Structure formats: structure tokens, C-alpha cells
Amino acid sequence: MGEGYGRSPKLLKGALVQFSSPLLVPVPNIIIFQYNPESLTRSLTSYTPREDRGAGEGGAGGAAGQKESETSQPFDPTETFTLNLLVDATDALEVPEAHPVAVVTGVADRLAAMEMLLYPAGDSLLGGLLGSASASVGGAGASIGGAAATAPPEPPKKVPIVLFVWGPGRIVPVRIKSLNVEELQYNQLLYPHRAKVSISLQVVTSDVLANEKWWAKERPEYDIARFAYDFTRGQKEALALANVANTVDSILGMLPF
User: What pTM does this model have?
Assistant: First the structure.
């Protein structure tokens, strides 16, 4: 019995990987799933053709209300994932000297790490301090020059780049659409000791990431996200092509001879 279990393959764990650039290179913040969810729901939604109102509003040529073809698909379909996670501090508390944070805050640190994926990076404490320092330096330079320089447009606030890692066959950039937390138990300081988390993720396609590059030209995490998306899509195309062999076998099986 013992030898059989010893030969069992090691199960990979899923994770959310956040990329931020407080330094010259993107620094990953890896949130590994303590327990892999028992199931994962995927949904793909195709593009919805829209009516072209340009001609009706002064556009040249064409009739007003002209609609796109029903088979139009200018972009990749929208893909979403829904999964339920369990976080528990029991295992960490068995070795308290190795997990001092869990002794005090239970699973609050892990919950906070997931929640911060929904906040714009510039609103963090570190981001605010760096922004204030940059503004102070810029103001001092303008004073020394004797004239107030025109400040460049401030880029829009963005959530951090997050990769959803579910084995080597699925590594995609995602946006956290919703995060629901059910806290189940508390320690003496009322920090959660155990919690259930329901997460809804929307895949950020390569087309969307390419449009973001107009203001993020020096943000290498966007290049990493695009590479991950293209790599995963390439694997999906290869698997679909491999299914041709199954199709041939099925056709041969339908023949009466």
C-alpha cells in the first residue's frame, strides 16, 4: 500500500500570478491555490453583430441601420472561468514557528492578496508614495528651470496584469470580474481562520492587450501576458488539429464494409 501511494504523480496546483512594475522589471506575486477546486466552469461567448448607424448619422453611402453579418467574428470569443477555492489556516498552525503570520491573521493575508487584484495598482500605499515622490521631483525641476513645464497626461488607472495558471496547458491573462468570500471560522482576534472563495475570471485577449500598449510601451508585463495568451491558444489549435485523427477513425467506423 505504501509503495503504491509513493508512486503517485505529484499534482500541480493552480495559481494566480500578479505582475507589477515598481522596479525596472515586472515582479510576480504568486497566489498558489492551497487546494485545487474540484471543478471549474468555463464559458465562451461569441461576438454579437451590431447595427451600423454611421450612414444614418451622416455617414457616406449605405443604408441606415445596416447590420453586420451574423457570422462576423472580428475578435476572439470572450472566455470566462468560475471556480470555488477553500483556504484554511489549520495546516499552517500545526507548525506555528514557521508560519507566524497565520498565527496572528489566519487566512486574512491570502484573502487580501486576492482582493487587491481588483484594485488599481496606483491606489496602493507603495504606488501612492512613489507617485508623490515623482510629483515632488517634477515640481522641483520646474521651479529650478524658472517655468512650469507642461505635465504629460496621466495614464488611466489600471488593475494589475494577472495570469491564471492551470497547468502547462492553460496560462492566460485574466481580469477578476467578481470575488465572493464566505468567512467560516475566526481566531481570537476575529481574523478569518477558514474561508470559501468564489472567483469569476474573464480572459483578456491578445487584441485587448495590444490596444493597451498605447500608454504602456515600457510595461514588459503586457508582453508577458500576450505571450501567455498566444501560447495557450496555440496549444488549443494543436489539440483541435489532433482531433482530426479521431474524426478519421469515426468516419471509417461508419462505413458498412
Answer: 0.75
